[in-house]
Amino acid sequence: MDSLLQDLRFSIHSFRRQPGFVAVALGTLALGIGTATAMFNVVNGVLLKPLPFHDPAALTMIRIEGRGGGLFPLPDADYLALRADHHAFANVAVYASTSFNFTGSGTPDVLRGAWVSGDFFTTLGVQPAAGRFFAGADDAPGAAHMVVLTHRFWTRRFGADPNVIGQTIRLDDVPCTIAGIGPPGLEFPRQDLDLWRNGIIETPTRRGPFYLTGIGRLRSSEPQGIAAAHANLETAAATLKQQYGPGDWSFQMLPLTDALVGDVRTPLYLLLAAVGFLLLIAIANVANLLLSRSAARQRELAVRLALGASRARIVRQLLTESALLSAAGGALGVLLGIGITTVLLPLGRTIVPRLAQIEMDWRVLAFAAGISVAAGLLFGTAPAMQVSRRDVSSDPLRDGQRTGTSRSRRRLQRTLVVAEIALALMLSVGAGLLVRSLIRLQQVELGFRPERLLTFTLALPRTRYPDEHASRAFYQRLLERLEAMPGVQSAAVAVSLPPDRVTVTDNFTAEGQQYDIGQSAPVGTLMVASASYFRTLGIPLLAGRLFDDRDRPGGERVVIVSRTLAERYYPGGNAVGRRFRNGGPERPKNEWMRVVGIVGDVKYDGLAAAPAPAFYWPFEQHPWTDQFVVLRTTTEPEAVTGAVRDAVWSIDRELPLALVRTMDELRAAASADSTFRTYLLGSFGALGLMLALVGVYGVMSYAVCQRSHEMGVRAALGARPWDLVALVLRDAGMLAALGIVIGLVGALAVTSVSETLLFGVTPRDPATFAGVAALLAAAALLASWIPATRAGRSDPLGVLRNLE
User: 49, 625, 713, 741: which is deepest, by most CB within 10 A?
Assistant: First the structure.
């Protein structure tokens, strides 16, 4: 113990004499360990920690899988069929994310909520913090309207007052009794949830509409229990097909955790691997620093050996210094990791699920401690091995300061630099692919003109707007007032908005379309839009006409179809004048409509989605209560926001405006996940490149210092300064070339995992690989320029004097 304390005291004393070395080493370690800790913290909270429910392994998500593998929500009929026969499930429930107008308590507001069936909380296996949850009978026709508040909303809006239980709040102008309070952290099925409301499941007259997501709790999560659940779902599907007509669809069951985080699993593991590369680069850099330091300390180590210190004691001293560095670097890394996590959480709030579960728990601290110890062993072993292999007791004392460096040390340092360059190139190639993909995504053709558009949503409560006439009258008055406002060029309403605000889809039948037995009709985006919608968004008319005054209630039912729908389902794309109806063979009595126009394709289902069928109904003939409102302005859209709100409240003071956004903001949100990944991996790539270049600079500077005698001799024998510069640059170029070749091979092997994250770019895009390789080669030579110019200034007279 005494010798260990002595080693620690000596290490601290040694570090005090070299504050620059300590600062660089600790900064490098903290950067590598901190980024790795932050990313593991996110992966742990999102992917590794179990869901905050009882026995989460037994929970499954149930949806409809249609032709081609598309997934769709459930209708009321499917839920009732599953609830009537769920022998393989302990419980089944459904939910639908929505929003509610909150009125009667100051300024109208929009709350984020969910409709849930009576067994929702029982299926999840959670208990209320206060009051009670819904019961099975609370979704039956005639049940009282109730809500359960999330713990966060209860604390924020009601000050955590326990007396709110039993009080009434107004949602969509309907009085609802507060039945209970959810436990802290429970905000399923959406982040930032405010409340749950009991959904009333009426006896359906047809199978649609499709708007619910199912969850089931298996009686057994063992393989036989899962097989029984699949058989249970097949039986229920057969019953529904017998009742509502055949179709090529089935129920899909997926573990709830996989369903919630499936889309982010690959990106998060990819980012975790990226910070792993960054950590290895940092370790290689510190190892190079320690090798250079141990070479400079040869005389000191030789003196200690000459005074009786054993070789094992010297090795232990070096390992103690490495352990001290790794411990301090790990502590700083944890602090940096906490800071990085704090920055990441707001950036990923709308992208990464389960953010509430992200916290610095024992798993994360154990991970940080583990990689700190591993880093210390990795970068500390190299200089210790060098000392144990070489006789440092004779040459340094005999030759004074001109001892040079051993070939093995130089070889190891050069190997570490090559590894750094290879890892940096692999990181940079991954970042480059995502950057090119993001550029392609942002350049995609939207199908409309996005500039100077302001959007928001309105939801008319049925208590004040009970029928189509009332809804139609409200929106007509609103559009008239909005278009009369200064700064507004035109205004329109629609049930969905580009680029990814689809709220309604339905299957459809084109005139002459035939179905095989059991075949389902194709599905398209159903748009209900005012006549001014196409003019406001700038959607081009390709054939026929747009909606006009002829398309009134009681007139001929008409429809406008998109280019893709016309070309795919009408011969030669000649859809104008032909007939069209929503629904497939299971709804043969649906009314036929006349196609009056064809418009260009618009991105409604995401920027990366391929052109999909869409059909438009005139709002005058199909007025809906919930609408997106969109305005094209002659000035900046934000400048008219206040006047727009006043225009709405001049008609109905109890209507809140929700999701007030410009189209530029909606477009940015549509690519937010790609932007988030690109910025993160791009940052990691830039840091890795910087660390690798620092390593190149350090090794080349040290090599020039060690070869100063050789450089002087060359100069004395007639070598020109540029010859010496070229000698160093050639040496650096060889290291860079070897690292780049290894890195390219590694990048070719690992970038295939990113294929699902790319848009318009292949994982082996030649331009990206060539561009990154050229950039890294140029940067490596640039990092070697200062040491090279120092070599070019070698003094031959000084060398000759030393030879005398």
Answer: 625
Instruction: Evaluate whether residue 738 is within a structural domain.
Output: yes
What pLDDT was estimated at residue 285? 86
Mean pLDDT, rounded, of the chain: 86
626 with 738, same domain: the answer is: no
Residue 39 lies in a domain: no
**pLDDT band at 370, cuts 50/70/90?**
very high
- DSSP classification of residue 497: B
| Sequence-ordered alpha helix ranges (H) in 44-124 | 76-84, 120-124
CB atoms within 10 A of CB 341: 21
Pairing state between β 505-510 and 523-529: antiparallel
Q: How far apart are CA 780 and CA 728, in angstroms?
A: 12
Predicted pLDDT of residue 180? 96
Provide the β-strand partners of residue 110: 101
E strands present in 347-498:
453-459, 488-494
Which one has a higher pLDDT value, 143 or 400? 143
Q: Same domain, yes or no, for 100 and 153?
A: yes
Radius of gyration of the chain (CA): 34
Spatial contact of 412 and 386, defined as CB atoms under 8 Å apart: yes
Residue 647: pLDDT above 90? yes
Taking the mean position of all CA atoms in its chain, how far away is CA 552?
45
Q: What range does the domain containing 504 cover? A: 465-653
pLDDT above 70 as % of the chain: 88
Q: How far apart are CA 274 and CA 268, in angstroms?
A: 10
162 alpha-carbon distance from chain centroid: 37
Return all residues near 250 (Cβ < 8 A) that are at least 6 apart.
64, 65, 233, 234, 237
Q: Which residues pair with residue 795 across a beta bridge? A: none
Non-local CB neighbours of 313 within 8 Å, separated by 6+ positions:
3
Strands 109-116 and 658-662: unpaired
pLDDT tens digits, 277-306: 999 999 888 888 877 776 655 666 555 556
Does 475 lie in the same domain as 440?
no
In whole angstroms, give the CA distance from residue 398 to residue 382: 25
- Give the model confidence (pLDDT) of 219-265 as tens digits: 998 999 999 999 999 999 999 988 887 777 899 999 999 888 877 88
Task: Look up the pTM and report it.
Answer: 0.82
- Residues 120, 634: Cα–Cα separation, whole Å: 48
**Neighbour count for residue 166 (Cβ, 10 Å):** 9
Residue 517: pLDDT band with limits 50, 70, 90: low
Distance CA 358, CA 338 (A): 11
Are 411 and 385 spatial neighbours (Cβ–Cβ below 8 Å)? no
Domain assignment present for residue 254? The answer is: no
